[in-house]
Design a protein that fits this description.
10 helices; 3 strands; 3-stranded antiparallel beta sheet; mainly alpha; 67% helix; elongated; 199 residues; disordered C terminus
């Protein structure tokens, strides 16, 4: 990647990438809702597995390929402030806010589970289980959800107010999101010239 080719990604492109990622990950919340109503404790096992999937998606894939599937689809890459590929540490710090928000939701569900016995839970229909658990949310549940939402919202809103469109997690991780077209005519010509030089 030549430094001069790295143009800051627009807000529109980044939002489109987020929507694509959410579409890819959309089966997870659906499964989570099913597990939420299926068994008293099965959701805890699923929650750990779900977090592992999110970590692979937002940390492992990003450190390996420079972005999530959504970002790569939109021809975006995450680079460090020196316009070099990021490593695992960069990727983990970028994911930290989303991880904290996700853990907040899991904690609320965990306390909900503690508020009813296994026997009483099994007597309920699936929709009654969901409604019952919502009613049994801990007193701080709504506040925790609000804090989680504000963390994610504030983190991403920051990119509106700076020319490099960096979010708070970009600043903390020392990263930025740029356009990257691996099959652009200039790069193709450069690769062809390089290949011919080795013949």
């Amino acid at each position: 990647m030549a430094d001069e080719s790295l143009k800051t990604a627009s807000i529109r492109a980044r939002l489109a990438a987020i929507l694509i990622d959410l579409l890819i990950l959309s089966p997870l919340p659906a499964i989570s809702m099913y597990m939420h109503a299926y068994d008293q404790w099965s959701f805890l096992i699923w929650a750990v597995f779900e977090q592992a999937i999110y970590t692979i998606f937002y940390v492992d894939l990003v450190s390996r390929y420079g972005g999530t599937p959504g970002k790569r689809w939109m021809n975006l890459r995450i680079v460090n402030v020196k316009n070099k590929p990021i490593d695992l540490t960069h990727a983990f710090v970028r994911y930290l806010f989303l991880f904290i928000a996700s853990v907040g939701v899991v904690l609320i569900e965990y306390f909900e589970r503690l508020s009813i016995s296994d026997e009483d839970f099994q007597k309920l229909f699936w929709y009654e289980r969901i409604l019952n658990e919502n009613m049994r949310s801990p007193e701080f549940g709504n506040e925790l959800l609000l804090v989680s939402f504000l963390i994610v919202l504030g983190d991403n809103m920051l990119m509106i107010f700076n020319s490099q469109r960096r979010t708070l997690h970009d600043y903390l991780a020392g990263t930025r999101v740029v356009y990257y077209f691996p099959w652009s005519p200039s790069e193709t010509a450069s690769n062809t010239t390089s290949a011919e030089a080795h013949l």
